[in-house]
Amino acid sequence: MARSAVYRTARTDERFAAHRALAEATDPAKAPDRRAWHRALAGTTPDDDVAELEQSAARARARGGAAAAAFLERSDTLSLAMPHFGNFSYRSVS
């Protein structure tokens, strides 16, 4: 609960900086999904590199995890490729 309280009271730029630091500190070979998630939460600027989220979603879907929907939703939010927008609901149910 303390972690949640600190996170919610932090300024947006502080949250972005924390997520950037966590993404940089996370080994992509050992925890690619965690790294992708932190990279995606490190800012609001669209970034084609956030396609990592779609790979994470595929792994989550293969594991039967509900996290796939969260990865896809964030991917759609940050993707530079206009055809991606609006694909979240279709991909999450397919």
Short description:
The protein is mainly alpha-helical.
Topology:
Blueprint: H1 2-9, H2 12-25, H3 32-40, H4 52-63, H5 67-78, H6 88-93
Helix pairs in contact: 2-3, 3-4, 4-5
Number of helices: 6
Instruction: Characterize the overall form.
Output: globular
**Strand share of the residues?**
under 5%
Helix coverage percent of residues?
55-70%
Mean pLDDT: 76
Distance between the termini: 35 Å
Low-confidence stretches: 84-94
Helix-strand category: mainly alpha
SSE succession:
HHHHHH
Rg calc: 14 Å
Give the biggest beta sheet. Answer: none
Number of strands: 0
Give structural attributes:
94 residues, mainly alpha, 6 helices, 0% strand, disordered C terminus
Can you describe what's shown?
By secondary structure, the protein is mainly alpha-helical. It has six helices and no strands. Helix 4 packs antiparallel against helix 5 (67-78). It is globular. It starts with a helix and ends with a helix.
